[in-house]
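lol so apparently i was supposed to do this last week
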Amino acid sequence: MTRTVLAADFGGTNLRAAIVSAEGHILHRDDHLTPAESTPQAIIAQVIELLAGTVAASGAQPAAACIATAGLINAEEGKVIIAPNIPGFRNLVLTTPVGERLGIPAYIENDASAAALGEFRFGAGRGTRHLLHATVGTGIGGGIVIDRRLYRGAKGLAGEIGHIIVDPAGPRCNCGSRGCLEAMVSGVAFAERARLILQQGKSAILKEIAAGEPPTAVHLSAAAARGDTVCEAEIRHGGHILGLALGSLVNVLNPDCVTLSGGLLSMGEMLLGPAREAMYSLAYGPAAGTLIHLSELGDDAGLLGAAAVAFEHLDT
Ligand SMILES: [Zn+2]
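anyway here it is w/ zinc ion bound
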């Protein structure tokens, strides 16, 4: 029988679950809305039943389960420390009840760390040994693979590249610091820049596209694509900042490659061109040979990342 795992991508809106083979093939999948129960305990109970339902419907006998979710995770203790997208999720052990209900070892992992291992095992980082992954979306996340294993650090926090300071005088970040990468280059940061552009009356095109709604990164990108130079400069500057952060990390970690995923990549070369240029301008010596690859896992990155983590646990 094919060796499989149960993988789950647990977000604020969606709970995706799948049975995944060791080759990264999704053999069965279920997409649910995240249960909207009144207490975290009730949400967990519902999630566990949905996961058990996926196992039953698939007819598979997965060897392990892994749940990937956003937030601070203590993978060793199987605990969610804080999940910002799921109300009330603080200091909750998730793996014990999941493992008990399903009768298999259960694991939990930060979604960006899982995505890094997913790219390494099944995606754009296949065949490498050391990899840095960055998710560039609403926020900025990251994951590090060293010597073919996910690097978690002492307390499971490793890979939080969104909180590298890129401008000490920059805007305040959710974490409390000033000028974090995430506060400068992310969906939220670009939306704030777009709001300021409108407030200062600097872009008629952006004003027309936003049509009275609060402007978003998508609006900013659309205005730039229509030739708005102010919006384009904003995106290019963001790309440059992103590249500086990646270049710094490349000098520290010396990975074989950097993989990128996330919604902001739809900004294309306007963001990625300056990012690449800044990264290579910083890369020291042999680090200048570090490759940048775009994710190959698309929408399934969360599921395949969780599966990769489950297989890593099984293999060690
Ligand atoms: Zn921060």
